[in-house]
């Protein structure tokens, strides 16, 4: 009994060391970057198209122009201005080795905003990516640095906030830094799925299992499977007291009490964020908008610091006994949900045939048809794919090739592949210069300028779908939001961009012969009146030059009164 206190002390010391190792980020160093309580619209690691969500989306009460404050002292080390992505963003480097990022902003604080504006006019370029030295724009904790907004790829007013390791540029889970965000709600489980891992997770795909909630636990009936090699996937969300569907932070899978797989989303780099597609059932996500996270590792998924490399999560059933399965989900606060079920192998009367796979993870592959060739790198695939590539005719008069069907838009590729296509007729040099490659992947179209290697058009994409060559002689244009010669009393000029094929890739506006700063919001071009065109300045001529993906250029002239 005399040794018990020593054992208790040793136990407490070990426990303290473990907790510190799990939570070794500075607590309460960073403050809330808003003047209102932090409420989450999205958390770190939430499932997005082709990437993990890399920070926190903080609600701004559906309003714009709320004060955005520096989360800690440091200096503005970078500013970005871009059409999509972050829109207007500020990066602040802090002396403790971290960098915070604030995105979708409407306006920078006055001194910084004026610097950016001057550089835009000097460069005659609206989009910017500017880096700064430590002494140029120092900030103190709580200092106003910007006004919140809805710029870039934002779908509604909010502040996107990230914490990064300054040295590695990895994005870290901000919820690990001790922000005071109340959360007493455990993750909510709504679906369980199993996959036959003798084959690809894409074919035959997910097998759904009904989940029931009894008290505080989730259960499912005995899962009878016809394969000795299976894996599981889970459909679940975290509500965090606030109603929004947030992503799952941590999951564990146990069989007969033994841990066989687990993941946690503590940090991810932008170089690796696309590996999300190997962590989810991509087919269900793209086709059905259902986010199912794999409780196993796909052979081509190489995301670091996400799961234990020694635990694949693939279950090998060696007998027809009933085995206990437990799935444990946790949020950062430790709120926990458990799902318990049982699994049993049942192969009576089973007949299974398997088609040959033409694409395997970790192996490069070249696949050809009569008029096309695709080159997949060794990193392209997460799981085996029976890659079906074929051609079909397209009746559009401007289409100058067969349509090349690249398997299915419901199968992901990790990196860019190269596609070569022969046109279906002889093209002149001038015609070749106006050819674009158009990829349709169901929900959208990606159009790029074709590069020519002899009589083959070449291009790179990172999604599958149907690709064709289009001879585009159409002119891009802009449509003004005012009548010709009208007096403009509003605070902005708005031009609507129009491109029949592809996009407007170059835009230049000149007011009375001098470059004028138009911002771009998706397809709109917007000038906010300033000292370049003050009220009472009379009649003005606006010249606009636009160029589309194919390289076609159009010049338009408009007049207005101010």
Automatic annotation (TrEMBL):
Residues 1-21 form the signal peptide. SUPFAM superfamilies: Duplicated hybrid motif (SSF51261). GO terms for molecular function: metalloendopeptidase activity. Gene3D superfamilies: Glucose Permease (Domain IIA) (2.70.70.10). The keyword Isomerase does not apply. Keywords: Signal. Residues 52-120, 132-167 form the M23ase beta-sheet core domain. The keyword Signal applies. It holds the Pfam family Peptidase_M23. PANTHER family: M23 FAMILY METALLOPEPTIDASE, PEPTIDASE-RELATED. This is Peptidase family M23. It comes from Chryseobacterium ureilyticum.
């Amino acid at each position: 009994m005399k040794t018990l206190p020593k054992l208790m002390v040793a136990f407490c010391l070990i426990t303290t060391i473990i907790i510190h190792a799990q939570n070794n980020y500075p607590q309460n160093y960073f403050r809330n970057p808003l003047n209102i309580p932090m409420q989450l619209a999205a958390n770190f690691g939430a499932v997005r198209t082709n990437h993990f969500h890399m920070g926190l989306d903080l609600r701004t009460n559906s309003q714009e122009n709320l004060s955005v404050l520096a989360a800690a002292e440091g200096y503005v080390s970078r500013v970005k201005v871009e059409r999509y992505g972050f829109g207007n963003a500020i990066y602040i480097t802090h002396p403790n080795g971290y960098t915070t990022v604030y995105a979708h902003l409407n306006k920078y604080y006055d001194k910084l905003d004026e610097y950016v504006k001057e550089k835009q006019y000097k460069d005659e370029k609206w989009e910017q990516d500017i880096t700064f030295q430590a002494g140029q724009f120092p900030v103190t904790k709580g200092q106003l640095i910007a006004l919140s907004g809805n710029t870039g790829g934002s779908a509604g007013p909010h502040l996107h906030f990230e914490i990064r390791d300054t040295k590695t540029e990895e994005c870290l889970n901000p919820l690990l830094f001790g922000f005071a965000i109340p959360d007493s709600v455990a993750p909510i489980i709504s679906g369980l799925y199993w996959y036959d891992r003798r084959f690809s997770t894409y074919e035959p795909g997910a097998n759904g299992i009904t989940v029931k909630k009894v008290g505080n636990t989730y259960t499912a009936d005995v899962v009878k499977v016809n394969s000795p090699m299976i894996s599981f996937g889970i459909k679940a969300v975290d509500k965090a007291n606030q109603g929004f569907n947030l992503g799952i932070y941590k999951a564990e899978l146990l069989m007969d009490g033994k841990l066989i797989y687990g993941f946690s989303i503590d940090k991810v780099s932008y170089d690796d964020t696309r590996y999300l597609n190997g962590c989810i059932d991509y087919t269900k996500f793209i086709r059905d908008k259902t986010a199912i996270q794999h409780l196993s590792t796909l052979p081509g998924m190489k995301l670091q610091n996400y799961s234990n490399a020694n635990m694949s999560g693939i279950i090998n059933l060696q007998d027809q006994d009933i085995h206990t399965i437990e799935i444990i989900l946790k949020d950062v606060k430790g709120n926990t949900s458990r799902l318990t079920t049982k699994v049993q192998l049942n192969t009576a009367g089973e007949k299974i045939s398997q088609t040959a796979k033409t694409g395997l993870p970790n192996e490069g592959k070249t696949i050809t048809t009569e008029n096309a060739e695709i080159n997949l790198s060794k990193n392209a695939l997460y799981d085996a794919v029976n890659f079906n590539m074929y051609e079909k005719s397209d009746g559009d008069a401007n289409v100058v090739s067969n349509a090349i069907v690249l398997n299915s838009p419901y199968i992901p590729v990790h990196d860019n592949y190269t596609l070569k296509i022969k046109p279906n007729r002889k093209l002149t040099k001038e015609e070749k210069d106006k050819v674009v490659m158009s990829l349709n992947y169901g929900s959208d179209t990606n159009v790029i300028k074709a590069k020519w290697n002899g009589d083959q058009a070449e291009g790179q994409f990172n999604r599958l779908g149907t690709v064709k060559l289009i001879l585009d002689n159409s002119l891009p244009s802009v449509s003004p939001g005012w009548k010709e010669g009208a007096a403009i009393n509003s605070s902005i000029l708005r031009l609507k961009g129009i491109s029949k094929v592809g996009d407007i890739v170059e835009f230049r506006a000149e007011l009375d012969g001098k470059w004028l700063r138009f911002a771009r919001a998706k397809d709109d071009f917007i000038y906010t009146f300033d000292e370049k065109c003050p009220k009472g300045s009379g009649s003005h001529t606006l010249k606009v030059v636009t160029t589309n993906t194919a390289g076609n250029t159009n010049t338009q002239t408009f007049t207005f009164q101010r």
